[in-house]
Amino acid sequence: MSAAPVYLLEENHDLPLCRLQVTVRVGAAEDPGGEGRDLAGLCNFATELMRRGAGGRTRTELDAALDHLGASLTVSAGRESVTFDLLALREKLEEASALLADVILRPDFSAEEAGKLRRELRAHLDDLRDDDSALCSRFFYRGIYGQHPLGRPIEGTAESLERLTVEDARSWHRQNLHTGTVVFGAAGDLTERELLSLCERHFRDLPTGPRPSPTLPEPTPLSGMHLHLVDKPERTQSQILIGQLAPRWNEPHWLPLRVAATAFGGTFTARLMDEVRTRRGLSYGASARTGAGRGRPLLVVHVFPSAEQTAETLELVLRLYREWAEGGLRPEEVEFAREYLARSFAFRIETPEARLNLRTEVELAGLQADYIARFPGWVRSITPAQVDEALRAQLRPRDLLVTLVCTANALREQLQTVQALHGAVVETFSFDSF
């Protein structure tokens, strides 16, 4: 059954500036996989190619037309969605929206641009290998999700990029750009009537289609402790990510666990930061966070000690994680975290653009429309008993993935104690093996 597009608006008439977003409820998690036809990176490839020539204009001509209007148009692909973001003065919004409509409805899919894009994406992968934090995150997602769609890399791999063709991009566009997948959002100097009229004029040719499922398949939790060493030469500092699967955003334990993670490692004075940085100086930063979205998110701890202090830091963090899981939190820690989340929420909604982005996230996740208005009250209502229940139900301190970007040979002896103490399964990967 065909579904109508969703329209979200955050009015603000202080400045004659408008942001128009087209968000698609499809991301890299839906990229085709399987032996012999792994198309990881297709969503990113297809949507970036749409931006590089449309409506009969080449990439250069499209850029020149946007520059002439003083407008900007960017595309951002993620694991669960894609957003086309147009920023223009109100007086130029009509012309700029026509260009956005060409990109959405009439992309050229130039073979020449596809070749250039493929080369740029390969170069981006090379750059990513130089960024230890991003490298750690990439291997961490792959390790914790395995073959699950959320483990698929947004940018693809060197091998999958070679498989991507213009026809693959056209096919992605035909399948995924229709009324059921699109969320129109606007922020700034625009009224609801103007937004609806603007979209009707420029996007009336959007094909009809059904609303996709708001959830992704359930991933398989890890069993046992897994230690993945991403081997990179001459590292003087280690990037460490530790984590497990977490509740979905719309599940009862999500908010209590968000409070718990904030108390454990979400502020500068949280338990994790106090133990790791303030008392021992092992890492400049130490954090714990829970994700959100329509798929199964992660609970992740991040530290980055020196190479010499890696084993000591890892042993400490794993002990703190176990104590957190088994001993819970003190009532005053819960109270502080609740108030911090309730009060800091204002920074997530302080601008029309921020409110629009959050409303879009809420819509994509299938949450109730009043989530944003009610969040401060909800978080303040979380009790220590609810936090303890979520910790007991959700934390798995013996079933964690630990991913380290390090020089493996220099750390193997150091990590033997961690391996023996936790019975960890150790695997080593070359930093350029993706």
What does this entry show, briefly?
The protein has 434 residues and is α+β, with helices and mostly antiparallel strands. It has helices at residues 42-50, 59-69, 93-105, 111-129, 132-145, 158-163, 166-176, 192-203, 254-265, 271-278, 310-327, 331-344, 352-365, 371-381, 384-394, 408-411, 416-422, and strands at 6-11, 17-24, 53-54, 57-58, 72-77, 82-89, 182-188, 226-231, 239-245, 283-290, 298-305, 401-406, 425-430.
Share of helix among residues?
Answer: 40-55%
The mean pLDDT is 95
CATH superfamily of the largest domain, please?
Answer: Metalloenzyme, LuxS/M16 peptidase-like
Total number of distinct structural domains? 2
Name the shape in a single word: globular
Overview of the molecule:
Helix 1 packs across helix 7, helix 9 (254-265) packs across helix 12 (331-344) and helix 9 (254-265) packs across helix 15 (384-394). The protein starts with 5 loop residues before the first strand and ends with a strand. Helix content is 45%, strand content 18%. The protein has a six-stranded mixed sheet with strand order 10-11-9-12-8-13, sandwiched between helices. A five-stranded mixed sheet has the order 1-7-2-6-5, with helices on both faces. The protein has a two-stranded antiparallel sheet with strand order 3-4. A hairpin with a 7-residue loop joins strand 10 and strand 11. The protein folds into two domains: 6-203, Metalloenzyme, LuxS/M16 peptidase-like (Cytochrome Bc1 Complex, Chain A, domain 1), CATH 3.30.830.10; 226-430, Cytochrome Bc1 Complex, Chain A, domain 1. By secondary structure, it is an alpha+beta fold. The chain is globular, with a radius of gyration of 23 Å.
